[in-house]
Structures are given as C-alpha cells and as structure tokens.
Design brief:
eight-stranded mixed sheet, 8 strands, alpha/beta
C-alpha cells in the first residue's frame, strides 16, 4: 500500500504517546481510530487532544476554526474489531512485552493483510515484535518523541524482516505528518534511548552518591551543555518507571553492566515516585 492510499489510521493505546500520535495524524488530515480498552482512557485522551489543539490555536500554529475539524477526524473506540477499516496502524500500548504481544496478535488477525503495523516502542526489539505477527515484512518501528505534537523527530526502525517497501512508505508517511524521519536499525534502545537513558541514569547516580542535588545536576547540564531540560527534570517528564524499564531492556539486550539501572531510580519507582504523572519524582509536582 502506498502512502497516498493511506486515509484511515488506527492508533492502539490512548495514553500520553497514543493521544499525541492520534493528534498529529488528525491534524495532518487523516481519519483516526483511537482504540483503548476502557472508555475513560479515551475520554481523557480526547480531552487532552482538545486542550492541546486549543493551545496550538492560541499560539497561531493552527487556525481556531480548524480545531473542531481536527477533532471530528478522531473516532475513539473500545472494540478492536473497529480497526478493520484502518489502512495503517500505530501500536502505542504500555512498554510491556506481554501487553504488546496480546494487542499485536489481535490486531494482526483483524487487519487486511496489506496493512502496515508500526510500533512506537521505545526500546523493545522490533525484530521480536515483528515475529509475533503474520506480516513481519509489513512491520516497522515508528518511534515518536514526547510531546508528539511538538517534537519533529521520528525514529523509523527497521526490523530484520521489514521490507524495503514498508520502510520507504513509513519514512514518507512521517514526512506527511510534518516530522523528520531518521532511519535506524533494530538494536536495544535504538539511538535515542541508548544515548539518553545512560545520561539520565548517570545523573541519578550523581544524586545518590551525594555529588550534587537534582537542581545542581540539571543546572550544570542546562547552563553548561545547553540542554533545554536537565536530565532529571526530563526523567520526571518521561516517567521514572519508563526509564527503569528501558534501562532493563538495554542491560538485558547489550549485556554490559554500564546499563544497570541506578538503585535510586529503582527505589523511587518502588515508592511510587514516578515523576510528573504521580506528583513526585526528583522534584515535587503539587496538583
């Protein structure tokens, strides 16, 4: 299927990444089926998308009259059977292999054989995910950055089985979204998280070992390295549980002890200090 034939896109998962991906597809003129297991997750996602579109309109990035048009392109659904109408699918469910396996198996059974399935996984092997389906040559990684409506990068990750046609179509589709696709081969963490997560992990070690406070670590990286956000501030934004999960994938996949998750990160996650989403991480986030 060529990119010109793609009119309807299904996004599986309505969380932070899923609703952002749905937002950019709808904003780019696609009809979007946003699927999740519970209506309350969909309601929350639609509310978030609506607020983000309003912000874009206020900043002049989107005509106010377009907000309603974009929202009308989104159809929230709980029934997986509804995605049978999709021409392209992006999986954005939680970063757990067992969840992805269940969702991909069901979607693969429902979708037309020619439909490409892309995964937004941030670290799990694309080759292993492709093997779950009966269309491994039409499986690819499409790793968006958070926040999706703002960040222009999309890592397009080629599984061992991905065909040239699938890879090329996905690169072109990312461009239609106004994104900049970068080609990456399948390896633990790809490029973005293989570089970023050890940085966050080392910053956590600096705090744990008393080298500096979180504020000082972040100030050094922002003022000295010109980072827009400090690594610990960014970790809170991403979610400390997500950071630990990705470090585990890197450690297991690459076998190098330098990828072991910092004990302080693991302790915070065990305490429920997950960052912005829980109200506390390296910094407090009063409601």
């Amino acid at each position: 299927m060529t990119t010109e034939q793609i009119k309807t896109v299904a996004v599986l998962g309505a969380g932070t990444m899923g609703n952002g991906i749905a937002h950019v597809f709808a904003r780019s003129g696609f009809s979007v089926l946003l699927r999740d297991i519970d209506q309350r997750f969909l309601d929350r996602a639609m509310d978030t998308i609506g607020k983000n579109l309003d912000c874009e309109a206020k900043k002049g990035k989107l005509a106010e009259a377009q907000t309603g048009t974009v929202l009308a392109r989104l159809k929230p659904v709980t029934d997986m059977a509804a995605i049978a109408a999709a021409d392209f699918v992006v999986e954005a469910v939680p970063e757990k292999m067992e969840i992805k396996r269940a969702v991909l198996t069901e979607a693969d059974r429902i979708l037309h054989p020619e439909v490409i399935i892309a995964s937004n996984t941030s670290s799990i092997s694309m080759t292993a995910l492709a093997a779950i389906t009966k269309r491994p040559d039409r499986f690819v990684g499409m790793h968006f950055m958070n926040p999706v409506p703002v960040m222009v990068l999309v890592e397009v990750i080629r599984a061992l089985q991905t065909s040239d046609a699938t890879f090329s179509a996905t690169m072109e589709l990312a461009k239609r979204l106004g994104k900049t696709p970068v080609a990456v081969n399948d390896a633990p963490g790809f490029v973005s998280n293989r570089v970023l997560m050890p940085l966050i992990n080392e910053a956590a070690y600096c705090v744990m070992e008393g080298v500096a406070t979180p504020e000082a670590v972040d100030a050094v990286m922002k003022l000295g390295m010109n980072h827009p956000m400090g690594p610990l501030e960014l970790a809170d934004f991403i979610g400390l549980d997500v950071c630990v999960d990705i470090m585990h994938v890197l450690h297991e996949g690459l076998g190098d002890p330098k990828y072991r998750a910092c004990p302080l990160l693991k302790k915070y996650v065990a305490a429920g200090y997950l960052g912005r989403k829980s109200g506390k991480g390296f910094y407090p986030y009063p409601k």
